[in-house]
């Protein structure tokens, strides 16, 4: 099965061996996305809502680079470091998915950088075989 790597313009080098997105058989898989700036430093330290917005904007850029929109997102995996941030994360999340919501799960866990409060990975169905 052919696949295409999706890297939005201006994307910095990842901190591990992965790409921002992979498109195969009409489906876009967006890697776990953390609230990183271009130098892979955590942004908006201590602010779960701002970190969530940054993460979802980054995911949006991957989806749009592949030719889709956030309406094409069908599933999200959400990782948070503390349940006390759940409400703030959901408020921002709802802004990015105002209509029918994607399926999702949310778990509390440790993340790769201690100042990161949220990480999200997504799946989008773009309905065409190649990018």
Characterization of this structure:
22% of the residues lie in helices and 28% in strands. It is α+β, with helices and mostly antiparallel strands and 131 residues long. It has a single domain, classed as 2-Layer Sandwich (60s Ribosomal Protein L30, Chain: A). Strands 1-2-3-6-4-5 form a six-stranded mixed sheet, covered by helices on one side. Helix 2 links the parallel strand 4 and strand 5. It is globular. The two termini are 13 Å apart.
Task: Briefly summarize what is shown.
By secondary structure, the chain is α+β, with helices and mostly antiparallel strands. It is 22% helix and 28% strand. The protein has one domain (3-7, 16-125): 60s Ribosomal Protein L30, Chain: A (2-Layer Sandwich), CATH 3.30.1330.40.
Q: Class, according to the CATH hierarchy?
A: Alpha Beta
Low-confidence runs of at least 5 consecutive residues? none
CATH homologous superfamily caption:
RutC-like
**Count of the domains:** 1
